[in-house]
């Protein structure tokens, strides 16, 4: 079964709900001996953006450069269906109008 890695960025205040949502959708599970669940990697960083005139703002001011702390989260998704469900769950739980995320197909060597 192909594996995927979901990577997304989230403000610290929304970290727990976003992780809970993707885990409920099946992300973060490592099958095999031990059957680990709710596995992910998190690391803090700084995001930067300048909202345009039509932005639906969660934070910041239109036209003003905003720098804010965010957390990068990475989680394994076992199968395309899990990856798709996790992305949908992330979009519903995330506070931004459009969360920044990527899904990458993993190779087995």
Topology-level CATH name of the domain at 1-45 and 81-109: Alpha-Beta Plaits
Q: What's the CATH class label of the domain at 1-45 and 81-109?
A: Alpha Beta
What's the total helix number?
Answer: 2
What structural class do helix, strand and pairing data support? Answer: alpha+beta
- State the end-to-end CA separation: 13 Å
- Which spans of ≥5 residues are poorly predicted at pLDDT below 50? none
**Largest sheet descriptor:** 4 strands, antiparallel
Succession of helices and strands: EHEEHE
> Mean pLDDT score, rounded?
93
**Radius of gyration based on Cα positions:** 15 Å
Strand numbers in spatial order across the main sheet: 2-3-1-4
Oligomeric composition of the shown chains: single chain
What does this structure look like?
- The chain has 109 residues and is an alpha+beta fold.
- It has a domain at 1-45 and 81-109: Alpha-Beta Plaits, CATH 3.30.70.120.
- 22% of the residues lie in helices and 32% in strands.
- The protein contains two helices and four strands.
- A four-stranded antiparallel sheet has the order 2-3-1-4.
- The two termini are 13 Å apart.
- The model has no long low-confidence stretch (mean pLDDT 93).
């Amino acid at each position: 079964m192909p594996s995927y890695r979901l990577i997304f960025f989230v403000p610290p205040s929304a970290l727990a709900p976003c992780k809970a949502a993707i885990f409920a959708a099946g992300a973060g599970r490592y099958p095999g001996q031990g059957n680990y669940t709710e596995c992910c990697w998190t690391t803090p960083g700084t995001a930067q953006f300048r909202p345009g005139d039509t932005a639906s703002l969660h934070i910041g001011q239109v036209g003003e450069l905003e720098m804010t702390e965010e957390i990068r989260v990475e989680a394994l998704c076992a199968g395309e269906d899990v990856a798709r469900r996790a992305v949908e769950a992330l979009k519903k739980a995330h506070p931004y109008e459009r969360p920044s995320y990527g899904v990458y197909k993993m190779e087995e060597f």
